[in-house]
Amino acid sequence: MNNQKAFSFRQGELLADLFCEMEVNYLFIGKSGAIILGYPDTTQDVDIYPKKDPENGRRIVNALLKLGFELDEETKEAIVMGKDFVQIKSGPFDVDLVFAPDGLEDYDRVKKRAIWVERIPVAHITDIIKSKEAAKRERDIRDLPFLKEFAKTIT
């Protein structure tokens, strides 16, 4: 079912439209968020920072089902309960739900700094960088100099 090789802006639009319709409270983060902001790179999945709240989780489940994702009961429960990290590869593209991103304080404070690209809410580039610095994964460390240089063009 996973026939997309890399994240595309169109996938972001599809997700944003449905999340808006379903009243999901979320932000794009990670490299997919940076790409929506104009960062010239690719990534394999959509990184979403949803507000951790059972009702918001139920709205996420319904939106993903409507988009064609297949979710087992364990995954639905993890989303509703706001498990720190839920990786979903059972739909038209891969989605990572990151309810507790490394290096970021509570959702509401991050959302106040968000940037809107058309109808898509994206964590501020400084928050994306902060999270990648805190994660300390090798691929994130490689991306950091480029993301920091990109940040100078939009802030």
What does it look like?
With 155 residues, the protein is of the alpha+beta class. The protein has helices at residues 9-21, 30-36, 54-67, 73-81, 107-112, 125-135, 138-154; strands at 26-28, 45-50, 85-88, 94-98, 115-117, 120-122. The strands form 2 sheets. A 4-stranded mixed beta sheet has the order 1-2-4-3. α1 crosses α3, α2 packs antiparallel against α6 and α3 (54-67) crosses α4.
Total of DSSP H or I helical runs spanning 4+ residues: 7
Share in β-strands: 15-25%
- Low-pLDDT runs of 5+ residues are none
- In the residues, how many domains can be counted? 1
CATH architecture designation: 2-Layer Sandwich
What's the SSE pattern? HEHEHHEEHEEHH
Structural class: alpha+beta
In the sheet with the most strands, the strands line up as: 1-2-4-3
CATH topology annotation: Beta Polymerase, domain 2
How many beta-strand segments?
6
Q: According to CATH, what is the class? A: Alpha Beta
Q: Helix content range of the residues, please? A: 40-55%
Shape category: globular
How confident overall, as mean pLDDT? 93
Q: What summary fits the major beta sheet?
A: 4 strands, mixed
Radius of gyration: 14 Å
Distance between the termini: 38 Å
What layout of secondary structure does this protein have?
Blueprint: H1 9-21, E1 26-28, H2 30-36, E2 45-50, H3 54-67, H4 73-81, E3 85-88, E4 94-98, H5 107-112, E5 115-117, E6 120-122, H6 125-135, H7 138-154
Parallel strand pairs: 2-4
Antiparallel strand pairs: 1-2, 3-4, 5-6
Helix pairs in contact: 1-3, 2-6, 3-4, 6-7
